[in-house]
Amino acid sequence: MMKTIVAVGDSLTAGYGVDEGAAYPALLEEKLRTDEYNYNVVNAGVSGETSSGTLSRMEWILTLEPDIVVLETGANDGLRGIDTEVAEKNISEILQLLKDKDVVVVLAGMKMVWNMGPAYVAQFNRIYPKLAKEFDVVYMPFFLEGVATRGNLNQGDGIHPNAQGYQIIAENIYPYVVQAIKKKN
């Protein structure tokens, strides 16, 4: 029986600027099937979305009946300088909704760019490890590990991964997703 993983997030999940097949959800599905895991990976990424937008979409996301959700949200909150307490509250509410529905979560951590100032960056960067511990989710410390700030792995804007960058993200996230599958079973 085919099971469902929903990749929830912003443009980093949606695959802004690359073909849908080059974004990490498609690559993840391919890798899972190669290793004989029967999972569809639904790309539910929306470019420009903040954690508030993600929270407002949760009812719809739950209609997809996910077994697992890979949650990547909050980067746009940070880039817009939205109060970190707002992002933390939204992500906390999302995690609670998923927990209530017995959905296993892979929380993809984000780190904020330094030009937001050291105090803001420190507050922002604390959100993910704190919530991962609080909700006992599978935690990937940094979604863009090995890709952020590397020009050859990003598009011209320096923010969005290119196809090569997404290959690395898919490789990096894979063991966390396998951990989530084991947790679900």
Overview of this protein structure:
- The radius of gyration is 15 Å and the shape is globular.
- It is an alpha/beta fold and 185 residues long.
- It has helices spanning 11-14, 24-34, 51-63, 75-79, 84-100, 118-135, 163-184, and strands at 3-9, 39-45, 68-72, 104-108, 138-140.
Main sheet characteristics: 5 strands, parallel
Write the H/E string, N to C: EHHEHEHHEHEH
- Which parts are unreliable, with pLDDT below 50 for 5 consecutive residues or more? none
Beta-strand residue percentage = 5-15%
The chain-level structural class is alpha/beta
Q: How does the overall form come out from the CA principal axes?
A: globular
The whole-angstrom Rg is: 15 Å
The helical percent reads: 40-55%
Mean pLDDT: 96
Write down how many β-strands occur, each being a DSSP E stretch of 2 or more residues.
Answer: 5
Between the first and last Cα atoms, what is the distance in angstroms?
A: 13 Å
State the helix count: 7
Task: Give the strand line-up of the largest sheet.
Answer: 2-1-3-4-5
What features would you highlight for this structure?
globular; 5 strands; alpha/beta
Summarize the SSE layout with pairings:
Blueprint: E1 3-9, H1 11-14, H2 24-34, E2 39-45, H3 51-63, E3 68-72, H4 75-79, H5 84-100, E4 104-108, H6 118-135, E5 138-140, H7 163-184
Parallel strand pairs: 1-2, 1-3, 3-4, 4-5
